[in-house]
Amino acid sequence: MRILGIEGTAWAASAAVFETDDPAALGHGTDRTPDPASDHVFIESDPYQPDSGGIHPRESAEHMANAIPGVVDTALAHAAERHDGDGPIVDGVAFSRGPGLGPCLRIVGTAARSVAQTLDVPLVGVNHMVAHLEIGRYQSGFESPVCLNASGANAHLLGYHNGRYRVLGETMDTGVGNAIDKFTRHVGWTHPGGPKVEKAAKDGEYVDLPYVVKGMDFSFSGIMSAAKEEADAGTPVSDICVGLQETIFAMLTEVSERALSLTGTDELVLGGGVGHNARLREMLAEMCEQRGAKFHAPDPQFLGDNAGMIAVLGARMLKAGDTLPISESSVDPNFRPDQVDVTWRGDDESVARAYTDDGAIRGAEATVDISTDDVVKRRVPKTYRHAKLDDRLRGERTKAEARLTSDARRAGVRTPVVRDIDPVEGVITFQKVGEADLAEQLDPDAVRTVGEYLARLHQAGIVHGDPTTRNVRVGTDADGNTRVYLIDFGLGFHSGHVEDHAMDLHVFAQSVEGTTDDAAPLLDALEAGYEEVGSAEVLSRLRQVESRGRYR
Ligand SMILES: C[C@@H](O)[C@H](NC(=O)OP(=O)(O)OC[C@H]1O[C@@H](n2cnc3c(N)ncnc32)[C@H](O)[C@@H]1O)C(=O)O
Ligand SMILES: Nc1ncnc2c1ncn2[C@@H]1O[C@H](COP(=O)(O)OP(=O)(O)OP(=O)(O)O)[C@@H](O)[C@H]1O
Ligand SMILES: [Fe+2]
């Protein structure tokens, strides 16, 4: 099979030819495993480089109009050279359907339709984000990894479950590359800023910047404002670059580790242009190695926007018969990865793995030793993080966890009793509560209580910060009544803001959606429980949080 891929969502006008001798291996349910080493890939790219500032949508569309015909012709000429025998020179044409800049996507769509019609071959519409992560899965041979996409306009963690890629966590504001590029524009550097930050950071000293993760979601706006203020105050830019890399990449590594812990999988793949950064790859590799997980970053030619990844996923989709009639091939600038009907993977595959309980538990953050009555939680140093940042986070979180666990109980929420705390070593001894994590015994009644408890916390001005199905314990009392306990308040804080309260609900809802087949009754129960005690304003804000298009 030989397929043409075309990419042009924002800055890279790119066309590629992907060829495999063993197309059967691209499908699922076969006994064949793809051998990427024996594939043939040819990529021709023509990037748009703004003279000043960031990407201007009109200029980038002009660039696409000028450059796409050339890269497509070059790729087709290459396909023709490799072609022997009868029939069309490629078996299909795959193109980036979205997300991206509308005017750019339309140019790519028009080019793809015209080539497919001229050659009389099928058209395949590829989701650019899914392509960023499928290339890593394809090259690594991993079965069902957690995927971290660190690209310009996006940043999210995805895992496949029940026919779709689920968003396990994502940025609440800008994409990671765009955040970095905004800082470099502020200090007068040309686009793209990411590679320049990496270079400058080699000669700098670490500076502290705000660190913001909420469950597996995260945000960059506070860090970027603080970084700009540091620059305006005269802090050397190279120092700020170190602070930016250390902070932003530690956040991405931490949420990736949380996703590994929540799903129970031991495979992580990286995708997206920021994946070029050696420090990010180093942190992810170190985290994975220490957990005993496998890590894969694709070859550099497949990291930033490129048509090779579009062609490879296009081939899998074509093999699955997932083609588009011309009349239904319109582009979609807001095409989310979780909207894609994943036709090329089996329904039995899943990112979620069976849970094993062997006494000593390693959460994402800490090791937890459980004895008959007590649980000792140790926030062990994370060597992938800069030592200063690591000390700060471990100290802050240990203190917050001990304080908020007790505050929550005063607000009428069941939590373990705190028996001892050592903030310097990052150790807390808790009463042992419950018999299982909610993740192992998900049922609407318990979830309803979680809703009620979150409402009680919020009424008392407390935000949990990380309410997932693994941070809720369930058990029964002596009379056989179900008891629900909230644990792990380490990311908690005091806030009366509706947005912070809605985020708590969102984080919990995401942890349910990421790991269950039928989330609806559970989410209904969550809201019903919340409604009983909490404010309706928070529930309507939750709707807004969920509907936000985060492609900026
Ligand atoms: C929708 C689509 O158009 C968009 N594409 C995109 O953002 O291009 P991508 O090639 O994945 O990523 C570009 C970003 O990657 C950053 N980047 C490239 N090399 C870097 C490095 N060594 N360190 C940090 N960032 C780097 C750039 O600064 C830029 O922000 C996306 O995938 O979000
Ligand atoms: N007080 C407790 N009683 C019973 N089990 C507990 C208690 N505290 C923690 N555990 C168990 O240990 C696991 C990990 O604890 P915890 O969530 O506090 O650590 P963590 O490292 O922050 O994990 P993560 O970041 O993955 O949520 C919990 O999912 C739970 O199974
Ligand atoms: Fe991209």
3D structure, described in words:
The protein has 552 residues and is α+β, with helices and mostly antiparallel strands. It folds into three domains: 2-127 and 302-332, ATPase, nucleotide binding domain (Nucleotidyltransferase, domain 5, 2-Layer Sandwich); 146-264, ATPase, nucleotide binding domain (Nucleotidyltransferase, domain 5), CATH 3.30.420.40; 360-547, Transferase(Phosphotransferase), domain 1 (Orthogonal Bundle), CATH 1.10.510. It is built from 14 helices and 22 strands. A five-stranded mixed β-sheet has the order 3-2-1-4-5, sandwiched between helices. It has a five-stranded mixed β-sheet with strand order 8-7-6-11-12, sandwiched between helices. Helix 1 (57-82) packs parallel to helix 2. The radius of gyration is 24 Å and the shape is globular. The structure holds threonylcarbamoyladenylate, adenosine-5'-triphosphate (ATP) and fe (ii) ion. Adenosine-5'-triphosphate (ATP) binds at residues 258, 261, 361, 363-366, 368, 370, 375, 377, 416, 430, 432-434, 437, 470-471, 473, 487-488, 490.
Quote the average pLDDT: 94
Helix content: 40-55%
Please, how many domains?
3
The separation of the N and C termini measures 36 Å
Subcellular location: Cytoplasm
Catalytic activity: L-threonylcarbamoyladenylate + adenosine(37) in tRNA = N(6)-L-threonylcarbamoyladenosine(37) in tRNA + AMP + H(+); L-threonyl-[protein] + ATP = O-phospho-L-threonyl-[protein] + ADP + H(+); L-seryl-[protein] + ATP = O-phospho-L-seryl-[protein] + ADP + H(+)
Binding site for ATP: 360-368, 377
Region (Kae1): 1-344
